[in-house]
Design brief:
The chain is mostly helical and about 180 residues long. Helix content is about 50%, strand content about 10%. It has a 3-stranded parallel sheet with strand order 3-4-5, with helices on both faces. It has a two-stranded parallel ribbon with strand order 1-2. Helix 1 runs parallel beside helix 2, helix 1 crosses helix 6 and helix 4 packs across helix 7.
């Protein structure tokens, strides 16, 4: 998972959802990348509280040039945020061929589309089940990798800029001329 360590990113619930998987899969590690935000101490304490202190790694801020390697090495991206304006890590992971489990709140269903699995970020069991499904269902993984790469390729900065310019042009064409100031 990736994001600044603060409550909105929902890392405490992710760690709680990971705990049953850590019991069933001895080689599984949860890696969380991101700088420290507000209330980060509670997040850092959660692995010990869940009994998985040695199975969760907080790697801190990840430089942009290191993100592709991190995503590519991951079995999946878990993105349980309670709210996002966009959710760029979802697209970054997809572009690297990493299956995605994302929150079904705010912008994330639109960003994820049909190229990932969605779950209620307030339902710990749903996150456990979603992660296990992506770890074990090879057909689903293969389908999501293919869909994810295609889906992410549609999101480019050039396209976003072009669409923004089109909106401005449309708004300017609707503008009524005003009399000059006197």
């Amino acid at each position: 998972s990736l994001g600044t360590l603060h409550p909105r990113k929902n890392f405490r619930r992710l760690i709680a959802a990971f705990a049953p998987l850590a019991e069933r899969y001895s080689d599984l590690t949860l890696v969380i990348g991101g700088g420290r935000g507000w209330q980060f101490k509670e997040i850092l304490a959660e692995p010990a509280a869940q009994g998985v202190g040695n199975r969760v790694r907080f790697v801190g801020f990840v430089a942009e040039e290191d993100l592709p390697a991190l995503y590519s090495a991951a079995e999946l991206l878990s993105f349980p945020s309670l709210y996002e304006g966009c959710g760029i890590p979802i697209l970054e992971a997809m572009a690297c061929g990493t299956p995605v489990l994302a929150s079904n709140h705010s912008s994330m269903p639109e960003v994820t589309g049909s190229a990932g699995v969605l779950a209620d970020p307030t339902d710990t069991e749903a996150w456990t089940e979603g992660m296990e499904r992506l770890l074990t269902d090879t057909a689903l993984r293969a389908r999501l990798v293919s869909l994810g790469i295609q889906h992410a390729s549609r999101f480019t900065w050039e396209r976003a800029a072009g669409e923004l310019v089109a909106v401005y042009m449309e708004l300017l064409s609707r503008r009524t001329p005003r009399a000059p100031f006197r």
